[in-house]
Amino acid sequence: MSIWEYANPKKFIATTTPLVPWVMGLAIACLVVGLVWGFFFTPDDFRQGSTVKIIYLHVPSALMAINAWFMMLITSLIWLVRRHHVSALAARAAAPIGIVMTLIALITGAIWGQPMWGTWWAWDPRLTSFLILFLFYLGYIALWEAIEDPDTAADLTSVLCIVGSVFAVLSRYAVNFWNQGLHQGTSVPVATGERTVSDVFFVPLVICMVGFGVLFLGLVLIRTQTEIRARRMKALEARMRS
Amino acid sequence: MMPDLGNYAAEVLTAYALSVGLLVGLLVLSLRRSRKVSAQLAEVEARKDRADV
Fold this sequence. Notes:
Chain A has one domain: Four Helix Bundle (Hemerythrin (Met), subunit A) (Up-down Bundle), CATH 1.20.120.
């Protein structure tokens, strides 16, 4: 069996529909456990005080904001190379989720930054590239809405997605490229495994990261199904008019 | 059993309220649009079936 079978819209909907309740259930369970654990049952940090509790929202949302764009990049490339409509619609479906994740990361970062850095905002490399990523999300969504022909819209948004990927990469690695910024390095470096977060904060943080990731997956499935149905509806209406 | 958030209670509570609000809003809007489009598609398919007959 080939993965490309799922590029068939009917097959995609038939396969994912029974999965959605399980995925969403897992996402909500992880988010409730992780956030309740982090908010109620973790101590204050000796330096950050109770603002450390914002980490359970900020880190997973920032992670998913960048990963959502990479998922859109992969599905956009699949569209450009293989012309599978489901992949273009999955990219479209992911964008509003990605923009909400980006917004949460920006808001929680600003709220944390005010008491800790003494400012809501700094033109720091990571913050700036993240803001540009937010603007790319806005542009991506606007472009889909602005173009009538869905194939042309998919082509142009795919190109925009490729260009915007530069800022997704910069958002993740800006602290490694430039060291003059305020933003600290990653708390959970995957490559080295040398994390700087104590276990007492790390376990609920990982649960929240899993929760945000699975929530993203569930929402992408729901929204992709919606986009497939909306596309079919437009096609049927056009056929009936002609 | 609200934890003592000290001097930063406003910041922490605002961050949680806004984030949870945005996530719930996204979920509700996604589900609502999904239901609406499904119903509209069913209606269009029914119209098409009637037209075909």
